[in-house]
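User: Modeling request: complex.
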Amino acid sequence: MTTRPYSAKRRLRRYPWILEAILILLAAVVFVPVYYLIVTTFKSPEEAALHPLSLPAGLDFGNYAAAWEAMVYPRVLANTAIVTIASVIGIVVFSAMAAYGLARRSHTLHRAIFYLFLAGLMVPFQMGLVSLYKLINALGLMDSLLAVIFVNIGSGCTIAIFLFHSFIQSSVPLELEESAFMDGCSVPKTFWLIAFPLLKPVIATVAIVSTLNVWNDFMNPLLFLQSREHNVILLEVFRNIGQFSVDWTSLFPMLMLGVAPLMAFYLFMQKYMIKGVAAGALKG
Amino acid sequence: MNQRTWKRELNYSLFIAPALLFYVLFSVYPFLSMFYYSVTDYTVRKITNLSFVGLDNYKHLFGSDLLRTGLKNSILYAVLMTVFQTSLGLVLAVFLDRKLATRNLLRSVFFMPAVFSPLIVGFLWGYLMSTSDYGLINQGLEALGLGKINFLGDKDIALYSIVFTQLWQWTGWAMVIFLANLQSIPKDLYEAADIDGASGWKQFWRVTLPLMQPSVNVVAVTAMIGGLKVFDIILALTDGGPGNATQTIMTAYIKTSFNEGFYNRGAAFGVVFFGIVMAITLIMMRYLSKWGEKIR
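Assistant: Request completed. Predicted assembly structure:
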């Protein structure tokens, strides 16, 4: 009985000022590259070389305007958004359906299929790129956004099925569905009306993790999109950086435009994003 | 079986079909076909009427400097990333789990680089590490009276420079996963340890770490597999150079297959890579679960 106030006092006594100061300093250092990226977009090469970390002399958006036009930004942004939205919807819907089917049926075949999906968490499928390239060609999908979307769904569904499956088994009660069947509800109707709405937390997790993966994926667009009309943001950045020029600061607005959409998304949704990333890694 | 139950069973199978179709067609089939191509003479000059060449492509692997370096670098890179991402992420998480006034802000700053594309992070760090007049880090070194360091052009340190940029990017990601795990540890365990008079260090080793096993497993295995597959950041920072000093499995594979047109050699390399990933992952999982048993 006497130890309790002592320990409470001990916990209260020392607020870790030194620790906090060190962490703030570390965070400032970690933030420097991002800060440098932002301020350099407003500078001329001379100004950036002389005063790399000072605030820009003026807010000249000319560099941005030039980068916007050089990248045909509205087009690449639209392409990236189409690829991301279509892939994420495909991954969420198909994975939720498959996980549901696999969780509600336990024949040997279903279990085998589940393990086949699980294997995808480990196997480096990138090694099949040569065959995949051939396949995309044979299907007539080369240089189409659909190629990237399909490949994203094929690789993104493994982790998603894993997450949906463990959630359905742990938190979606079978009783509800049984009574729906008694009332003559079909399987698709039961799934969409009863089970799917209950999956909301996992849907958010899967959507966040897949959005990050798909938006930032560079290899698939590099291999399957060739014409400029079908470029995504990263391809356009890659293309422009390749043409190294003396006017190197003019490339910074392109880098900024490359990270800006996800950065904005992060600033507004950081709580959900951090939660989603943690849940995606740990649940299951 | 009456018609209604039969229809129900069919419905469940139809539910699995779309995901299975995409997965088998775009992931499993291309992967499996590499085993076949790895024993043929499939190159850019011979794409039909393939003939069987035995293990020739595999023999070539051992003589190829590009592929051997790629393998060595990827393993070194993955091990470094695994060790440092796990340990630094754990330290950050333990500190940021304490009630600090600024902890939410600090957490979001540390995590932020994880939402950027590795390609763009690569270009950005390419400028920061440059040896030309505007390279920020070398400007700093010179201001301190030290000499310039050719971070990306010196073959002995280029790979380590790349690891550094990726730790900058991904340590916050590991931290977030560790934090979620830490928050699930009941606080009364610490109170009990306090009453027993256990020091902060002892509490970390005896209470915290054993209960952190799930997240340590996830972070370590993900860092290892991701590390072995590293591609974007290399392309943006060094493109495998100087010489072949920073080639990795993926850059070497893409160079051999797509640039040089030796699909068969790329395929053989892929098969070897698959074996290595499986071996390392299984050894790691076994080691980690043994560790889990020992501390329990």
